[in-house]
Amino acid sequence: MTGRVLPYDVHGDGPGRALVLHNWFGDRSTFDPLRAHLDETTGSYAFLDCRGYGEALDAEGAYTMEEVAADALAVADDLGWDSFSVIGHSMGGKAAQLMLLDAPGRVRSLIGISPVSAAGFPLDEESRQLFAGAVDDPALRRAIIDHTTGGRHGAPWLDAAVDRSVNRSSAAAFRSYLDSWATADFHERVRDNPVPVLLVVGAHDPALGAEAMEATWLRWYPNARLEVLADAGHYPPEENPKDLARAVEAFLAA
Fold first, then answer.
1. Best CATH choice for the domain 8-253 from the list 3.40.50.1820, 3.40.30.10, 3.40.50.920, 3.40.50.20
2. b (16+ CB within 10 A) / e for 220-254
3. Cβ 36 vs Cβ 11: under 8 Å
4. Ranges of each domain in the chain
5. At a CB cut-off of 8 Å and minimum separation 6, what does 31 contact?
6. Which of 39, 50, 77, 91 is 20 to 30 A from 172 in CA distance terms?
């Protein structure tokens, strides 16, 4: 993929421009439920696949957050967007912050959906083995998804999430992105950054919910605010897309 723009598509043709980065367990198709609720006349949303995911499944790379940020900026260049907001879900939220650091004059605002902070997500030994084991074991992927959504979803929902994760991500990318989003710590570089930030989390997310945001993002970004969705866990784009769309559009409009 060197020198090529990642696969992406644009939803809407409104003046509000935003690049959208997906989570560790899913490609850009995980935003399909959200797209159904976004006003195409007010926003232009560029949804892209990270290397090793979705239509970029076979794309080779280092599979790091730095690479995701650089690839996303290349998409913005391809679109001719001089300025834009960045929406990042989970690991996508960490890559979004690197875009801010790499192109501060272009990134107008950040929206983090259950986002990983600039400090990463420290894992104890048991958790590290669980997450690393999920690379080759779909049952462990299912356990993580079930836990981070509060055990609220039935077998069909969980099966669909696991199947998409397995079929639309490469094992190499899945494993390498884990190391990058979980361990790298650059929070001192973002401390006191004045960019407007919206954090949207699910009330049933035990990992990256309100408490985690208060300990990280809200300490480092003085213009950040938090919105908690009552009917969601770690995957608001799929669990509560209507309310997420409302929050996103209100923030971008402001």
1. 3.40.50.1820
2. bbeebebbebeebbbbbbbbbbebbbebbbebbee
3. no
4. 8-253
5. 20, 22, 47, 89, 237
6. 77
Detail the DSSP E strand segments found in 122-223. 197-202
For residue range 19-65, list pLDDT tens digits in order: 999 999 999 999 999 999 999 999 999 999 999 999 999 999 999 99
**Strand pairing class (8-11; 43-48):** antiparallel
3-state secondary structure of 57: coil
Q: Starting at the edge strand that comes first in sequence, how are the strands of the sheet with 8-11 ordered?
A: 8-11, 43-48, 16-21, 84-89, 107-113, 197-202, 224-229
Beta bridge partners of 229: 202
Q: Is the dihedral of CA 77, 120, 30, 242 positive or negative?
A: negative
* Two structure tokens written together for 229: 């969705």
The model scores a pTM over 0.70: yes
Q: Letter for the amino acid at 11?
A: H
Q: What is the pLDDT of residues 58-108, one digit of tens each?
A: 999 999 999 999 999 999 999 999 999 999 999 999 999 999 999 999 999
Q: How far apart are CA 248 and CA 227, in angstroms?
A: 10
Q: Which segments of the chain are extended strands (E)?
A: 8-11, 16-21, 43-48, 84-89, 107-113, 197-202, 224-229
167: phi then psi, degrees, rounded to nearest 5 = -80, -20
